[in-house]
Amino acid sequence: MKTELKHTKGKWNVIQPVNQNYLVVKSDDKVLHICEILKGTYTIDKTEAEANAKLIAAAPEMLKYCIAAYTVLRDNKKFIPEDKQQTLSLFMESMERVIKKATE
């Protein structure tokens, strides 16, 4: 599986602008905001908004490690015992779906 990463590069961080009711997810490599998340308004509270922002900020790193794990499993599948192959295949299919969801 070949993937092309098109998202904003760099480490993503969550910042809280001074005296504002939202959180910003931004990249170290770019000045622009990746997204803004309102907190304590509408239907989600401050805790949920902060958790959402942290999850979004971690997404590039999680994708990187998901691709790495998929590659290691694919390249070493022959070393997995036969009775575990079906479970491994189902797991790898799920990983491939998630990777495609994030990259296509």
What does this structure look like?
The chain has 104 residues and is an alpha+beta fold. It has one domain. A three-stranded antiparallel β-sheet has the order 1-2-3, with helices on one face. Strand 2 and strand 3 form a beta hairpin. The radius of gyration is 18 Å and the shape is elongated.
Strand content: 15-25%
Roughly how many Å apart are the termini? 12 Å
Rounded mean pLDDT score? 86
Poorly predicted runs are none
Main sheet record:
3 strands, antiparallel
Task: Offer a concise description of the structure.
With 104 residues, the chain is of the alpha+beta class. It contains two helices and three strands; from the N terminus they run βββαα.
Topology:
Blueprint: E1 12-15, E2 22-27, E3 33-38, H1 46-75, H2 85-103
Helix pairs in contact: 1-2
Task: Write out key terms for the chains shown.
3-stranded antiparallel β-sheet, 2 helices, 3 strands
